Give the backbone structure.
Amino acid sequence: MEPKYHLITYGCQMNKNDSERMEALLKGVGLSPTSVKEEADVILVNTCSVRQSAEDRVFSVVGQFASLKKSKPELIVGITGCMPGRDRDGAIRKRLPIVDLYFPTKDMGQLPRWLGELRPALVNSTDPVEDYLKVHPDREVTRQAFVSIQTGCNKFCTYCVVPFARGLEKNRPLKDILDEIQDLALHGCVEVTLLGQTVNSYQAPDPEHFSTNNPYKDHFAGLLWEVNQIEGVSRLHFTAPHPLHMTDEVIDAMTLPAHLNYIHLPVQAGDDDVLRRMNRRYTAEQFLDVIDRLRAKIPNLAIGTDIIVGFCSESAEAFERTVELYEKARFDISYTARYSTRSGTAAWRAFKDDVSLEEKKRRWNVLQEVQERIVYEKNQAYVGTIVSVLVDRYEPPKITEEMLAMPKNIQAVLAAQPGTCYGNSREMKLTRFAASKEYVGKIVDVKITKADMWVLEGELT
Ligand code: SF4
């Protein structure tokens, strides 16, 4: 019987993209996927370390494999991703005694060799792959795809585990990225999201592959231009940029036709002292200057952000400056996290996590209220306008108990009514409208008739 693997992925899009590479590696040496863990010869967990709760979930899941391993001792259990990456002193490894393979993402190319060493009959090749970023992700091509352009980070924000978990910034060759996107476009993909920890710091290791007529010197702007030349890609965006690298050229390249009217630009805090202790390398004023330059060039740009509340020694006054910055930037969406200390980081070594949980919750709620008010106000401006939507989901009409009590011919008429289609506009606003399932995958114009905080509602034009 064909050997099987069961892969569990936690965390961000980057992890999901890494798992697609891992799937390609495993399939390449003769394993096939299974969603039933009891059937698997190899179970791999791709982990996230961003919060303690994410790691706790991994301890619990791996704990459940212990009984499985008892009944099937030849089962191989592997842990990869951020947890092994950041585990410099082996403290995490000690808590996972049943694990056979424990490796950071960048070493996944060794999987064929390691599996061959543990169970030679499991794989048909033990040849390792030196650079895992060269592995072509195994994925079902849909209308949308995420493409990693770099891994790791050089910024060392004091609260963050990423530089430890993923190592220093490493950029993929431009040619590999463009070949991958060209292939996706040939297979029907229309929307590409470029991924990187500080995606706009991209430096091509092979700049000779930039087109001679590419107008930009900044490599990330140049990459945006190159992707714009690929036929079929009509929606392009990226996450997550660092404010420090929002050059005029990058902002200019965001006006090219494929680019969406949206940017997710993490600010984290609005107080200069907190920003300095976070090692974010900009002041609130410098961040707002980036926002001004973006809006001057792209007036209808929607902007999202990440914020941490309750960072070490963040006073109530310092938090108020974050609220002030929020009011000035008028973000369209924000993801707010309550600070939690992560072992191994500079903040864990140097600062005290001294803002109480109650106060963190209070600050979170304050920002939530500000966000909801601003987003509601901003979304009203969409009423009466036409937005372009890539439809990615369909819900059939709801059959209620009342309907079931109706005569069969009326039921049939009601059941034939269109359901609801959902998708994001070019401003990444979730939009819904009544239409049939056939619209899934299409890009359509929708006239907005109503807007609330989180959804624009409209009708097909
Ligand atoms: S820029 Fe800062 S927050 Fe983002 S991945 Fe790098 S170290 Fe972490």
Q: What stands out?
A: The two ends are 54 Å apart (CA to CA). The mean pLDDT is 94. The chain has 16 helices and 18 strands.
